[in-house]
Amino acid sequence: MDIRGSLAVVSAAVALVGVGLIAPAAQAQPQSSSAVVSPMTSVSCGGHSTNEPTISEWSSNAQAVYTLQCMLNRSLLHTTVTVDGSFGPSTLSAVKRFQYCDYLTVDGIVGPQTWGDLVFWAGSDNWVDNPCR
Questions:
Q1: Where are the alpha helices (DSSP H) in the chain?
Q2: 8 falls in which pLDDT band (50, 70, 90)?
Q3: Superfamily covering domain 3-132
Q4: Which of 30, 99, 103, 115 has minimal CB crowding within 10 Å?
Q5: 35-to-2, 42, 90, 99, 128 alpha-carbon distances in Å
Q6: How many angstroms from the chain centroid is the CA of residue 59?
Q7: What is the pLDDT of residue 15?
Q8: pTM above 0.85, yes or no
Q9: CA–CA separation, 16 vs 116, rounded Å?
Q10: Burial 25-52 (b: 16+ CB within 10 A, else e)
């Protein structure tokens, strides 16, 4: 099985687990730019950690954004997002690039699927954007 096939299997497994863990809460929560859904697994990166809440542009959850920015820097080749806890235009651009390169829905929202794949790629020896060069 090639790397894309392996990635597809891992991504599908993460998606199934993630949906099973938060689907009821996600249905009960209204959508907004700083919506917080039930926490999933705690993750950390560069001394920052979060419980993976759903976040998007202008989110006020600085701790989650710190972790997101650190993971984007570890996942995307030729990308340096300032790790400042502010989900502004450069972070949004990096999120969308990550989603595009990882064959996810490109919406700029960091939910269970994006978090799961970020955890995978941030811990990998490879870059997610190899097919995006």
A1: 3-28, 62-75, 89-101, 112-122
A2: very low
A3: PGBD-like superfamily/PGBD (1.10.101.10)
A4: 30
A5: 37, 18, 20, 19, 26
A6: 14
A7: 43
A8: no
A9: 10
A10: ebeeeeeeeebbbbebeebebeebebbb
Q: DSSP letter string over 88-126?
A: -HHHHHHHHHHHHHTT---SS-B-HHHHHHHHHHHTSSS
Residue with the two structure tokens 């790629």:
121
Q: Summarize pLDDT for 64-117 with one digit per residue, the tens.
A: 999 999 999 999 988 899 999 999 999 999 999 999 999 999 999 999 999 999
The pLDDT confidence band at residue 131, using thresholds 50, 70 and 90, is: low
Token digits for 62? Answer: 């600085």
- Could you tell me how many residues make up the chain? 133
Tokens of 22: 């938060």
Q: 4: how many CB neighbours lie within 10 A of its CB? A: 11
Distance (Å, whole) CA 84 – CA 127: 22
